[in-house]
Write a structure and sequence with these properties.
The chain has 158 residues and is α/β, with parallel strands linked by helices. The protein is built from five helices and four strands. It has one domain: Metalloproteases ("zincins"), catalytic domain (Collagenase (Catalytic Domain), 3-Layer(aba) Sandwich), CATH 3.40.390.30. Helix 1 packs across helix 5, helix 3 packs across helix 4 and helix 4 crosses helix 5. The radius of gyration is 15 Å and the shape is globular. The protein starts with a strand and ends in a 9-residue tail after the last helix.
């Protein structure tokens, strides 16, 4: 399940499918797993970036994991973290729409593709994936592109 804040209704279905596909392709196809997705402007994401990362600039996406998941961990190991109703809340993803528009134009692809990329990127972060090392980045990018390929949103050469 995905909770939305300031996300246009027409984008809910795609984001839910991206979430489900990300869970499936990471081996985490669990029932009653959820996350939040918010669309914000530049000032709001800049404030969040400053407050949580001490970086005073606009960024494209921020992830706020609720669990200490490591890459490759399975969500089934987090049964004790479920709420009384059985929900496992993974965390929140915040996407800066103006930055996504700039990047879509810069990379020569659609806004839909850029938003999907950022959302999958955020989902992978709350599932424990990172890109601090080159090997981690390569794995994360390959998985991201595989997920987007399922939706016909692969990266085009510019």
């Amino acid at each position: 399940m995905v909770y939305f804040k300031h996300v246009p209704l027409k984008q809910h279905h795609l984001i839910k499918k991206l979430f489900d596909t990300t869970l499936l392709l990471t081996g985490n196809n669990q029932v009653n797993v959820s996350a939040g997705v918010s669309f914000v402007g530049g000032e709001e994401i800049k404030t969040l970036n400053k407050e949580h990362r001490n970086v005073d600039r606009v960024t494209d996406v921020l992830s706020f994991p609720m669990l200490d998941i490591k890459e490759g961990s399975k969500l089934s190991a987090f049964g004790d973290e479920r709420t009384p109703n059985g929900e496992l809340y993974l965390g929140d993803i915040v996407v800066c729409v103006p930055r996504a528009k700039e990047q879509a134009k810069q990379y020569g692809h659609s806004l839909k593709r850029e938003l999907a990329f950022l959302i999958v990127h955020g989902f992978l972060h709350i599932l424990g994936y990172d890109h601090m090392e080159k090997e981690e980045e390569a794995r994360m990018m390959k998985l991201t592109e595989n997920i987007l390929l399922n939706f016909g949103l692969e990266r085009k050469d510019v």
